[in-house]
Amino acid sequence: MLRTVEVRTVLAVPGSPFHNLHWRANLDLNLDCFVCERTGRTTRFELGAERAVCSGTGETGKHHTAARIAAFDHTDARDRTTLRAVVDYWWAPFHDAKRDQPAHALTRAPWVRHYLGYYCPEQDEPGEFSTQTNLVRPQSAACQHCSAPIAESHETPQLRLLP
User: Fold this and answer.
1) Residues 9/156, Cβ–Cβ less than 8 Å
2) Residues 30, 112: contact at Cβ < 8 Å?
């Protein structure tokens, strides 16, 4: 069956210097994979790709799976930015024999990593960083070129299984 999950991440953004913070075209999401029948697999999504890549297992290795980024948006307020991605994926019930547990439509311990980019006006160079659910908050990101603060994460990214 087709499942859809919404991923929402809010970051506080300092006013200056402006670093043109933006969402990069990929994200990682922890899903239960019906292809390799393993729970808690890291799945890599690329915007525009018709399928995602499951991290697989030691025996099977990485493989494609039926999943994609269906939509994304990026909204800016005065002192914060919100990243939102909607991910569609196919899921079927199975039992993970190695971990002796059933699969869930949204894995038992959902995890996501958003990749972000920016542009340093002082050094005229691009940079990148990521934020994810399992970090100690608040978490700060600084420009790798001029050390100016770029973003701060005060809350964990939210994952919501849509009906």
Assistant:
1) no
2) yes
Q: Is 138 helix (H, G, I), strand (E, B) or coil?
A: coil
DSSP per-residue letters across 81-131: EEEEEEEEEE----EETTTTEE--SS-SS--EEEEEEEEETTTTEEEEEEE
Task: Please compute Rg for the chain using Cα positions.
Answer: 17
- Return the H-helix or E-strand segment holding 67: strand 67-76
Which DSSP state fits 41?
E
- Give the pair of three-digit tokens for residue 110: 């959902």
Write out the chain's pLDDT in tens, 163 residues.
999 999 999 999 987 778 888 889 899 999 999 999 999 999 999 999 999 999 987 777 899 999 999 999 988 888 889 999 999 999 999 999 888 999 999 888 899 999 999 999 999 999 999 999 999 999 999 999 999 999 999 999 999 999 8
Count of CB atoms situated within 10 Å of the CB of 153: 19
Claim: this prediction has a pTM higher than 0.85: yes
CB 134 within 8 A of CB 117: no
Q: Rounded to whole angstroms, how far apart are CA atoms 73 and 97?
A: 38
